[in-house]
Automatic annotation (TrEMBL):
Gene3D superfamilies tied to this protein: Metal-dependent hydrolases, Urease, subunit C, domain 1
Primary enzyme class: hydrolase
Keyword Transferase: no
Keywords on record: Hydrolase
Designated name of the protein: 8-oxoguanine deaminase
SUPFAM superfamilies for this protein: Composite domain of metallo-dependent hydrolases, Metallo-dependent hydrolases
Organism: Streptomyces beihaiensis
Record-linked Pfam families: Amidohydro_1 (PF01979)
Length: 461
């Protein structure tokens, strides 16, 4: 529940990076939160005479930013971290699919708790999960993920995934881990109707998200797109992640991934794709023309040796780009705030070198860019009056950051900064680096137990 609209939280004496259209910043400013929205923001102290102020926060030594927005993740992988650490994407998938195919509702709930906890502690206020493994008889997996996000207190998008191309059809997942075309579409529609909230301050939304070209049929992609547009929700999938995927698409469909996606109705401003590493000029132009979004996952792309996405070229072409953790079996830290730094550094290894990204562009990827990609830029992603009160206070006056004069540079280039306060919908979720609504130690124990149980089950096969 959002706080009463009459209740106010006042934050003062804080450096502010609004990430609005003008990149407005204040060296020392204030933010007034009323209920679940930002009422006012600006330089200096808050207006006098405010009623019903339930809390005042002294932000000295802190930077306030919009809450981070994660645009791609696979929560269930929290319980298979540290495996297949020297594999590329295809070999990694082959190694892990037999284990993933044994997950159940209890495992998925624990893994979602672990994934969400690490992100929320590190400044994520809007999370998403692309879940596509629904083994037969595994329980209410989608419901368990949504429950974990609700308990954590974060804003959440479930990208309800699906697979219908198994090993017998030339795909990668085991036969019993995929759904039928009809079953996947029906279950996806049911999830949207049960859980999707289209309101301005929605805490839970659902997207239609067949997994990838090499694990779903062309018909599932086509009908999935039609379903999403009939229901008025967004579309998500993996795209152009590896050179192997490009070869696969050319061999099977006679065209590259972007042309294939366009032929199935999967380009448009209601679509976002994860990775998009191997894209040529024509592909990037198509994304820019159609405003198809990209979830950039620099750490996972490096972990799986997939390559360096052409983020500067995408931005120049007008492509909406956000940041993603990706699954924690390919980004074991599970944190998004470290992706601010990794996005900047890894892109500077590419063709644009030191001109690839700067600190403020990287912060924008992790905030407003992510909000664009999720279709929520009018509600979150920047600190502006009238927007939802999703914001973070980063502590920058400790040993790790205090000698860096510019706070945005300190946040992006420096070590991972502690979170002193995180608000979601005007409600505190993190204080002084600790989660307020869940027991971190209990989550650590349960995720370890479920990881061990999954390993035992997989070893029996």
């Amino acid at each position: 529940m959002a706080p009463s609209s009459a209740d106010r939280i006042v934050i003062e004496n804080v450096a502010i990076a609004t990430v609005d259209a003008q990149d407005t910043e204040y060296a020392s400013g204030h933010i007034v939160v009323a209920g679940n929205k930002i009422e006012s923001i600006g330089a200096g102290t808050a207006p006098e005479g405010l009623d019903n102020v339930v809390r005042r926060v002294d932000g000295t030594g802190h930077l306030a930013t919009p809450g981070l927005v994660n645009t791609h993740h696979h929560f269930y992988q929290w319980i298979t971290r540290g495996l297949a650490t020297d594999h590329n994407l295809f070999n990694w998938l082959v190694a892990l699919y037999p284990t993933w195919a044994r997950i159940d509702e209890q495992m998925t709930y624990a893994a979602a708790q672990g994934s969400l906890a690490m992100m929320a502690r590190g400044g994520v206020t809007t999370a998403m999960d692309h879940h596509y493994v629904y083994p037969q008889g595994s329980g209410d997996i989608s419901g368990s993920i949504i429950r974990a996000a609700s308990e954590m207190g974060v804003r959440f998008t479930l990208a309800r995934g699906s697979m219908d191309r198994s090993e017998k059809d030339g795909g990668l997942p085991p036969d019993f881990a995929v759904e039928t075309l009809e079953g996947a579409l029906a279950a996806t529609e049911e999830t949207v109707k049960k859980h999707h909230d289209a309101s301005f301050d929605a805490m839970t939304q659902v997207a239609v998200a067949p997994c990838s070209p090499f694990s779903v049929s062309t018909e599932l992609l086509k009908q999935g797109a039609e379903l999403a547009r009939r229901l008025g929700v967004r579309l998500h999938t993996h795209g152009s992640e590896t050179v192997e995927e490009e070869k696969f698409c050319h061999e099977l469909f006679g065209m590259g991934p972007t042309d294939y996606f366009e032929s199935t109705g999967w380009l448009g401003e209601d679509v976002w794709m994860a990775h998009c590493v191997h894209m040529n000029d024509s592909d990037i132009a198509a994304f820019g023309r159609t405003k198809t979004g990209v979830a950039h996952c620099p750490s996972s792309n490096a972990r799986l040796a997939a390559g360096i996405a052409r983020v500067p070229d995408m931005l120049a072409a007008g492509v909406p780009v956000g940041l993603g953790v990706d699954g924690t079996a390919s980004n074991e830290s599970g944190e998004l705030h470290t992706e601010l730094r990794n996005a900047l550094l890894i892109n500077r290894l590419g063709a644009h070198r030191e001109a690839a990204l700067n600190a403020r562009q990287s912060l924008r990827l992790g905030t407003y860019g992510g909000a664009q990609v999720l279709g929520r830029a009018s509600q979150i992603g920047s600190l502006e009056a009238g927007k939802l009160a999703d914001l973070v206070l980063w502590k920058l006056d400790t040993l790790a950051h205090s000698s860096i004069a510019d706070p945005v540079t300190a946040l992006v280039f420096g070590a991972a900064a502690p979170v002193t306060l995180s608000l979601v919908n005007g409600r505190p979720v993190v204080e002084n680096g600790r989660l307020l609504h869940v027991d971190e130690d209990a989550i650590a124990r349960s995720t370890r137990a479920e990881a061990q149980r999954l390993a035992r089950i997989a070893a029996q096969d």
